[in-house]
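CORE FACILITY INTAKE
Project code: CF-77B
Contact: R.S. (postdoc)
Sample description: multi-component assembly, two entities in total
Requested service: structural model of the whole complex
Turnaround: standard
Below are the sequence entries exactly as provided by the requester. Do not edit them.
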Amino acid sequence: MKPDRIFALAWALVLAFAVAPVAAQQPRPAAPASAAEPPPPLGALAPANLAKPRPQAPFDLTGTWFIDQRNSENTWRFNPTGPFKLTPAAQAHYDAAKKAQAEGKVYHDDIGQCWPAGLPIIMTRVWPIAMIQKPTAIYMISGFMNSLRTVYLDGRPHSDPDIVVPSFNGESIGTWEGDTLVVDTKYFVEDHHWIDSGIPASDQLHIVERIKLLNNGNTLEIAYTMSDPKNWEGDWKVTKRWTRVDDTDIAEVSCLPDLNQHMPSTQSKDNVR
Amino acid sequence: MRTLVVGCSLAIVTLFATAALAHHSAAGIDQTKSVTITGVLKEFKWANPHSWMDIDVADDKGQTKLWSVEMTAPAYLARAGWTSKTVKPGDKVTVTVRPMKNGDPGGLFVNITLPDGRVLGQAPAAPRATQ
């Protein structure tokens, strides 16, 4: 092959590789509609989904919120205050946690080891939580490790259990009932996921939240009903309140690998892991 | 250098704020005691979710131990008058902490006495609420 032809071939190859990524980013033409297949579902932020006609939402949670601790410093906790019955496996964790606490030790503090807090405790983690409400979804970003929770309002059902990816915050579907937003959440992970110290969460955890906005929009109230047949009998019910905080934003917060090197309370050899 | 002045807890509100904003359990912290240490600041980190200080503290026998002091988030330190330049490595500082129950050299930050005599704490975790 002559040098000039080799040169031309090399340029052709360079151009081909240079153009390929650009072409890959071009929007694909819509697939031809098929009478047999329904159109793919729209994402919550798809303009066509946002533009669908819907009743006006009774309230808008958009804002930054902070768990109200004015009446008690323990309002962030979800452990039951009344009688409760745990399953034997959960009771073993609970008893071990009590024993560790009595000895001044930390019991399975997975959050301290950078595992996600997960629902429900991510809602009350004593960090501000930002909420952005759109007609199709509410996005909640906790100041604690920037945990993202999405509550879908666009009428979609829960996902197919064989397809859904379990998560620490679960899958939340919201529906309006009068002036109340009812949010149904399931599909949780159970490893390293705790309701409170010594009270584990499982993949059977099911949480229903009845959400209201009070006090001229400055108080957020959520009534929780939680069941988890792997860990306790019956429903646990608790109501929490948050206060709107307009002087606060959500910062970037990450649990970096070297954070705990300087935290004696997470590094202690006495911690029960 | 003087070390280890142990006394009763005087600032429950500050203690709770510290513990509550932490990213971890405070079960290993002795919330009924305070310990005051004086030493040379080795490192100060201004970061989320915690700021922290590592302080070289010498005991009466001249043995030096490294104390790690867990602090709250910078947003709440700033509300108490802190900046990222309030202290720097090499500064001689006096710091009061809630100590570890097991005696490890470290604890949760309560306040600091700076080389110029100023005393800084940290603001409660709860922001100023809209009423």
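Facility notes:
- The CA atoms of residues 119 and 134 of chain A lie 21 Å apart.
- Residues 6-10, 12-26 of chain A have pLDDT under 50 and may be disordered.
Invoice: internal transfer
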